[in-house]
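To: structure subgroup
Subject: Chain for Friday's discussion

All,

I'm putting the inputs and outputs inline so they're searchable in the archive.
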Amino acid sequence: MSLLVIIRIVIGMAGILFLPGFLLTLIFFPIKKETNHEEQSESAKRSLDWLERALLAIALSASSVPLVLFFLSKLGMPINKTSIVMLVAMLIIIEIVFLLILKKKNRN
């Protein structure tokens, strides 16, 4: 295999099996700033560490991408390489926009 094919496989696997779930974990379990343990609220104590976040990201990606593909196939959209790439890209963009909206809302 050429180097270009290997790079494409690695980026594709990360894009499909990690990134959508990682963004979902950032939406549902935001990263909290480190403070004293006495001062932490109950929501700050529920923040995930990096191993939990990575494992949950893989699980969420492995379940959310096929689920969305299933519903799109039931709506009559053909499932091929182009539609999968477009679906994952749209899913990632929607999650990034939602994450930016949440950060802007929390800043105010």
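Points worth raising on Friday:
The first helix runs from residue 3 to 17.
Helices lie at 3-17, 19-28, 42-45, 50-74, 81-107.

D.
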